[in-house]
Amino acid sequence: MKVAVIDKNGKDTGRKADLSKDVFGIEPNNHAVYLDVKQYLANQRQGTHKAKERAEITGSTRKIKKQKGTGTARAGSIKSGIFKGGGRMFGPRPRNYSFKLNKNLKRLARKSALSIKANEKAILVLEDFNIDAPKTQDFTTVLKSLGLESKKSLFVLGESNNNLYLSSRNLKSAEVITNSELSTYKIMNANSLVLFEGSLEGIESNLSK
Predict the structure, then answer these.
(1) Out of 5, 84, 134, 136, which residue is the most buried by the measure of CB atoms under 10 Å away?
(2) pLDDT band at 156 (very low <50, low <70, confident <90, very high)
């Protein structure tokens, strides 16, 4: 699959990048994408929620009324969940929400996500460039040149670039990552996927295994 390489001004460089069909041209597996995104979101949950149950709250243990003859239901403790100030019935407890997926499924999910973006014509291949100093305005100029200022975009670098990362950090609609940080969730969450030329080899080598 051939894709034109553009520069940071949005102009065609005259070169074309060859995207591997084994990574960007497979039949997408939607269930694999769903599972990988579900795992990513589950791993973001802290799971520290906690409510006190009747055994954990402070209160008297005396029987609050006699067993019979009141005309109402029997009650043995003021700490019961049916009374104001009582414990929570079946309240949330701390837990770990993460679950395991095997490597082959996660690799299939990422390839499926990239193939979906390729089918949607939502992948741009950008010529490698650098910014002299961290400056959000410079990065915003690049977004405008590429027509992405109003779209959620994901920039994938071949190697870590601190200036580009810091320049994009204040922008809600743009994110800069390296190819080793690429995940199914981030691919699917972006409207446009911008791949730096230097990232293609790393992406394809990681997903062609």
Answers:
(1) 5
(2) very high
